[in-house]
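Input.
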Amino acid sequence: MNNDTNVTWHEHRVSREMREKKNNHKGCVIWFTGLSGSGKSTIANTLDHKLHQAGIQTVVLDGDNVRHGLNAGPGMLEDSHGIEFSKRFGLGFSAIDREENIRRIGAVAEIFTQTGAIALTAFISPYRIDRDRVRNTLKKGEFIEVFVDTPIEVCEHRDPKGLYKKARAGEIKGFTGIDDPYEAPVAPEIILLAAEKTPDMLADEIITFLKNKDIISL
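Output.
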């Protein structure tokens, strides 16, 4: 039986400050949010490449990739133990499952910040309250919300996975932007106009922001 009173926080001998000093930059979470097809993953991976080339410690947490492992739903894991686990703990796309998906990702991203790394997360994360909950688990200035502001017409025209087409045909229910809401950030740290600029240009905008906030020094 689980007893929370037996769970205690352990301080590490290697502090975050020591790790950041070794990395020569601060840790933070760069949280990309936007509609499906807005360009979140492309921009996050472009930024990841640029920062890696500059010697910055980074990690990318991508929506689809995470749902293949940490948050795999029924049928995603093939071995018998995995299938049973995913039935009990896996996540679908209901509002409550999306809430838990973001909570788990936020917890993982926070762990990476403690190592002095920059965590890049690329999730639709459609609800403000879920994004704000993650923000509130981090210190001021550590959560950088990046709104990839791409019009739905552009996202639907791109439709790299054919999801909008399926949603319009009624084959997918609760699809963000079609029959489920997307709540755009009210005051994000960065707004990217991904229909007007290249991923390289947008990644450079974020790098400039990180420099100005003294998170990195290139």
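Residues 167 and 173 are 7 Å apart (CA to CA).
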